[in-house]
Specification:
About 3% of the residues have low confidence. 71% of the residues lie in helices and 0% in strands. The protein has one domain. α2 packs antiparallel against α3 and α2 runs parallel beside α4. The chain is an all-alpha fold.
């Protein structure tokens, strides 16, 4: 009976430790995929498509540099110019998103799909910000955000 109690204690400690270990250490770095379905809210769909275009450019640049391939300065400049264009187009679409999402024109299902698509684009943009911060400012990815 005492052995069973000790076993229960050990099992509960192991379970607690497994839940406390961050899952990021076990996750595999893979490419984010754009949403499969459009949300039928035009401004949201434009924002998502522009954010994933930017994500694609940053991901390709990051993959090349991690693989040890030296990116020529001409191509790097073109990537930066196109990334700036994508960021500008994101800023142009951004004000209309709030209006479209808060208006009563679309039903709940369409707004839910739009929210899911915006969350995917948020993850893509977060990756872009972290990667650009590492390459152009020179900070480490491992630093904690305040």
């Amino acid at each position: 009976m005492k052995a069973i109690d000790n076993l229960k204690k050990y099992i509960s400690v192991v379970i607690v430790i497994l839940f406390l270990i961050p899952q990021n250490g076990f996750s595999q770095k893979k490419r984010l995929k754009p949403p499969k379905r459009v949300s039928k809210i035009e401004s949201v769909d434009q924002f998502v498509s522009h954010s994933f275009e930017l994500y694609h450019k940053v991901f390709v640049y990051d993959s090349l540099t991690k693989a040890g391939v030296e990116v020529p300065a001409e191509i790097e400049n073109q990537l930066l110019e196109r990334a700036e264009q994508d960021i500008d187009s994101l800023w142009q679409v951004l004000p209309t998103i709030l209006d479209d999402m808060t208006s009563g024109d679309a039903n709940i299902m369409i707004k839910g799909k739009a929210t899911i698509n915006l969350n995917k684009s948020k993850r893509a943009l977060k990756y872009c910000m972290k990667t650009m911060k590492v390459y152009f400012i020179g900070t480490n990815e491992d630093e904690d955000d305040d």
